[in-house]
Amino acid sequence: DCPGKEGTGGRKRNLTLLRNKLYLGQRRRTEPVVESTTTAGDHGNLRRSQSDRTEYSQKLQEKMAPQMVSSTPATPLQEDKEEEEEEEEVRRCMMARRVKIIAELLQTEKDYISDLDLCIKEVIQPLRNMQIARFDVDGLFSNVELVHQLSAKLLSLLEEATTDVEPPMQIIGEVFLQIKGPLEDTYKIYCYHHDDAHTMLEYYEKDEELKQHLRDCVQSLK
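Structure tokens predicted for ARH38 factor (222 residues):
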């Protein structure tokens, strides 16, 4: 209650407040340093954590790559391989078609030669042997025998170019180029006399005796 004691208590309280203010001030000065250090450490940990996750993800993708091929889009190498396979399939189909066409060409030529052979043996030669005065065998059949010889030559060349030869190596174009001239000369004569032979046949069919000879020849062919 005395004035002296009150002054002493006030000074103590002032000292206490001063110490508190100094402590708070000191804390404010030190907290940024601590916070900065802590923050920097956290960032460092964060960076290391991201790096670890990235590295782990890369390793995982490398391990999983063989299993993920079927579910991932085709790579340029895969696309090139698929294109090559498609092209190879097209080549195989074209080669198979070419082989079939060549075989059909050979068979057609064989059938044609067989027909000509029958015509010569069963029609032309018997009519010649009859020696009918009013029957012009050569005028009616023109140069069929020469056509037969040339066709036999063509077939021989085709067989030579295809027998025991791998399909890709079968070159038949050269055969036709080789025999082009004789073919043109032979069929030029045949075609030139075709209309006259047709007119001659119509005339012979009006003659009963000659007509019967022709019937006999046709029956022999059958």
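Residues 1-6, 30-48, 66-70 have pLDDT under 50 and may be disordered.
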